[in-house]
Design goal:
By secondary structure, this protein is of the alpha+beta class. The protein has helices spanning 2-5, 17-36, 66-74, 197-200; strands spanning 44-47, 55-57, 60-64, 110-113, 119-122, 129-132, 138-142, 154-160, 166-171, 180-184, 189-194. The two termini are 29 Å apart.
């Protein structure tokens, strides 16, 4: 997989230790993503080339990790790799399989760095959003049943709007729950929802607001 991952643009040995570690971690993440969606990892080619685009050719995905590396460096993440610095807690509950509201786990889907230095984490099948400090303390959390009339399932994408509101993806939640939710974190009040299950079903793992500038995502 790793030999295939760098494609014909070079070999893994051509990079320094930091970049080799970074590429191996990208391989691991993409392999897990492929498994989640039932896609054969063999058909994912990872390459590193400045200013080149990722593409989909003959049923094969060619993914350029250069953009991720540039973002990683610009954000000055802790350490020199993509390694997680916080294990999502299970809060004493046993794991339960599945993707919907009945499941339970700590399969983190996404995270963004807040301006205060804390990290906002979408916990996937943990059905929650956590704000975690650099010393790994939970400073704020939104749990599965905190929003009136809404049940969180597989919590996916996160966006922080300029006004401080959070936009949260809520996948595999079924027809009675919205797919995307905007909340005011100070009050946990629901400001807006996208409720289009009839059109999209449970197949909205990712979302992005297109008409708002200066969004943290």
């Amino acid at each position: 997989m790793l030999r295939r991952a760098v494609h014909h643009r070079g070999t893994l040995e051509a990079f320094d230790d930091e970049r080799r570690t970074f590429i191996r971690q990208c391989c691991g993440v993409l392999r897990e993503v492929a498994q989640v969606f039932g896609y054969e990892p063999y058909y994912v080619t990872l390459f590193y080339q400045a200013h080149s685009v990722s593409r989909f050719i003959r049923q094969k995905i060619m993914f350029n990790c250069w953009a991720i590396d540039m973002y990683r460096q610009s954000q000055t993440l802790i350490g020199t790799s993509l390694k997680a610095t916080h294990d999502v807690p299970l809060f004493g509950k046993p794991r339960r399989g599945g993707h919907g509201p009945e499941a339970w786990g700590n399969q983190c889907f996404g995270a963004v760095r807040l301006k205060n230095g804390n990290t906002l984490i979408a916990t996937g099948n943990g059905h929650s959003v956590l704000e975690v400090t650099p010393d790994k303390k939970v400073a704020w959390k939104l749990e599965q049943k905190d929003l009136p009339g809404i049940t969180l399932a597989w919590v996916t994408t996160l966006e922080v709007l300029p006004n401080g509101h959070y936009v949260i993806g809520n996948c595999h939640a079924g027809p009675k729950n919205p797919l995307v939710i905007e909340i005011d974190p100070k009050t946990k009040k629901v400001v807006w929802t996208l409720d289009r299950f009839a059109d999209f079903g449970n197949s909205v793992p990712n979302s992005q607001l297109l008409d708002v500038k200066n969004v943290i995502r």
